[in-house]
Amino acid sequence: MITTRQLDAFRAVMQHGTVTGAAEALGLTQPAISKLIAALEDETRLRLFDRVRKRLVPTPEGELLYLEAEKMVLGLHALQRVAEGLRTTRAGRLNLVAMPALGQRHLPRIVARFLEEHPEAAVTLHTHGSQVANQWVAGQQVDLGLSLLNVEHPSVIKRTLCRVEAVAALPPGHRLAARERLTPEDFAGESFVSFTRDTRTRHAIDQVFEAADVDRVQRIEAYISDGACSFVAEGLGLSLVDPFTAAHFAAEGSIVVRPFAPAVPYQIRLLRPRHRAPSRLAAAFEAFLEEAMDALIEELGIRRFTPPAR
């Protein structure tokens, strides 16, 4: 079997042209170099050099073998760089899934800043509803997931990333935009853009209005906050939506955002697959994400939800 020591001696002779030069370069004796070359020729059953005036002149077979040896060495160097990148978290691949409230706009910005510190890393970001995000993490298909839905599954490790309050979304120029804060009573008789009936957010919001005995006109439904804000921007009603999506539409000037009481919480959960060991890159991103979310909440002026004292 060809050994790395044989190849090192062979490459050194090819590069220096003499056994003496190869021996000096590798810190070996001339007999040791000659022995390694002879062993390589025996192993390959090829004559690799002709001896011409005390110099070793490579044969055509030697030239071809040298080209292949150089490819192999370059490949090993590339492998070493990859391993170093993985060890230092500069490189690697990160597979994420997130609900639209973060995945459509804010998470790409966070990922972009993360990649500035990890320029050799690759990231795949999937944006799906929270139910799909939960399923993908439970199926060990991704490194990390962000979800609004609670998940109780033995294959998922979860923790709360943040709790924030829903905000009221109004069309520009609406009379309620003059109020600093809105309550359920302000929505009495108003056209209201609801979430679809199969969402937990819909149930939570309906309970708030039922507790206040307030009736709304509910003709339009949306599955996510992005759709609800788009309907509000068209003047089709008011809504209660997540503050991250609302902040984007408000920055465009297409809706007006106001605080709402009593608070309707949005709890964002960070999910990890239990049976998929986290890579160094995934662990680094998880720590980066926590700091980035704190900064984002402060930047957007989002109110954190604090459960009422009992």
Task: Kindly give the count of domains.
Answer: 3
Mean pLDDT: 89
Q: Give the structural class.
A: alpha/beta
CATH class of the largest domain: Alpha Beta
Give the amount of beta strand, in percent. Answer: 15-25%
SSE pattern, N- to C-terminal: HHHEEHEHHEHEEEEHEHEHEEH
**At the fourth CATH level, what is the homologous superfamily of the largest domain?**
Periplasmic binding protein-like II
Give the arrangement of secondary structure elements.
Blueprint: H1 4-16, H2 19-26, H3 30-44, E1 49-52, E2 55-58, H4 60-88, E3 91-98, H5 100-103, H6 106-117, E4 120-127, H7 130-138, E5 144-147, E6 156-165, E7 167-170, E8 191-195, H8 200-211, E9 217-222, H9 225-233, E10 239-241, H10 243-252, E11 256-259, E12 265-273, H11 280-300
Parallel strand pairs: 3-4, 3-5, 8-9
Antiparallel strand pairs: 1-2, 5-12, 6-12, 7-10, 7-11
Could you please describe the fold and organization of this structure?
The protein has 310 residues and is α/β, with parallel strands linked by helices. Helix content is 46%, strand content 22%. The chain contains 11 helices and 12 strands. The strands form 4 sheets. A 5-stranded mixed beta sheet has the order 4-3-5-12-6, with helices on both faces. A 3-stranded antiparallel beta sheet has the order 10-7-11, covered by helices on one side. The protein has a two-stranded antiparallel ribbon with strand order 1-2. Helix 8 (200-211) links the parallel strand 8 and strand 9 (217-222). The model has no long low-confidence stretch (mean pLDDT 89).
